[in-house]
Amino acid sequence: MSDQAQNTFQYGAGRVRLGVSACLLGARVRFDGGHKRNRFIIEELGAHFEFVPFCPEVAIGMGTPRPSIRLVGEVQAPRAIASRNDGLDVTEALREYSTATARRLDGLCGFVFKKDSPSCGMERVKVYGDTGMPQRNGSGIFARAVQEANPLLPVEEEGRLNDPGLRENFVSRVLVYARWQALRRQPLSKKGMIDFHTRHKLLLLAHSPSAYRELGGMLARLDNVPLEALAERYIERVMQVLKTQASRKRHVNVLQHLLGYLRKQVDDVNRADLVDVIDDYRRGLVPLVVPVTLLQHHFRRNPNPYISRQVYLNPHPRELMLRNVL
Q1: 229 and 189: one domain?
Q2: In a domain, 73, yes or no
Q3: What does the buried/exposed string (b/e) look like for 9-45 if buried means 16 or more CB atoms within 10 Å of the residue's CB?
Q4: Is residue 224 part of a domain?
């Protein structure tokens, strides 16, 4: 792997840290004493990220095995009680732990939750109403607290990571947030803000051309707005924009934009090859990695200082092969 690619996801000696529901890492912390080991998380993400495991039920003193719990009552503020009506109610303990822990996640750059869990489910968690019938419209108590306390933190459920587009989008967002966190560990400066934005221009363009222009305009007012306040608004907008997956049409737009930087450097034959492979991607005949790899080849032969710093060309570890199926 090139130094350039490595720098997109590793800073100094440490690796980017992800919070993960402990059962997904193979820990036997489920109510039945089992686990939900996830191969993609452990074997593939684990090669590039450092994991911080969490199990709220174990953290509040519930053993393994233990009575299963479910959410009951109001969707926005359900209670966590035993599924078999034995009087066990862990709502307050779970809320207290969740609120306190969610405020101490500054070192994390993303979180992968266990789907359907009354503590860790991110969405569509069963909540039982007065009729005794469940509605899949809730969130786990811990997952809700984490998201409310850390609105910029990229989060996903392990089930949704089976979708190639959601998987690639999540990892990209994690690494953008990690780069922002690295920037914020230094004294905030106009130069640092502009450098961060410059590196991410084409990635932002792939997600939203209008936001790309909006964010550029925001930084054009650096001299007229308090820097800290501007930084907060800027990263809020960046992370909001990146939640929407980049479409094939918008990737094509970026690929053609990149091709424009080679118009004087490549001959007609090579240019025709690039045009053809971008069109093949547009038609769904090849994955995104194919035109990106060919463009990288030509930029290695014809270096461009601006393009060489674009995160878009190396948004995540190549070994994860996230663009091989997009």
Answers
A1: yes
A2: yes
A3: bbeeeebbbbbbbbbbbebebbbeeebbebeebeebb
A4: yes
What 3-state DSSP class applies to 251?
A: helix
Residues pairing with 132 in the sheet: none
Tokens 């939900």 identify what position?
A: 36
The answer to whether residues 73 and 200 belong to one domain is: no
Query: Could you report the per-residue pLDDT of 15-74, keeping only the tens digit for each?
Result: 999 999 999 999 999 999 999 999 999 999 999 999 999 999 999 999 999 999 999 999
Tokens for 305? 């200082």
3-state DSSP assignment of residue 180: helix
Q: Are 9 and 316 in contact (CB under 8 A)?
A: yes
Rounded to 5°, the CA angle 77-80-81 comes to 140
What CA–CA distance (Å, rounded) separates 242 from 238?
Answer: 6
Tally of structural domains, the chain: 2
Residue 56 lies in a domain: yes
Query: Would you place residue 12 in the very low, low, confident or very high pLDDT band (cuts 50, 70, 90)?
Result: very low
Residue ranges making up the domain that contains 142: 14-162
Tokens for 159, please give them.
């089930």
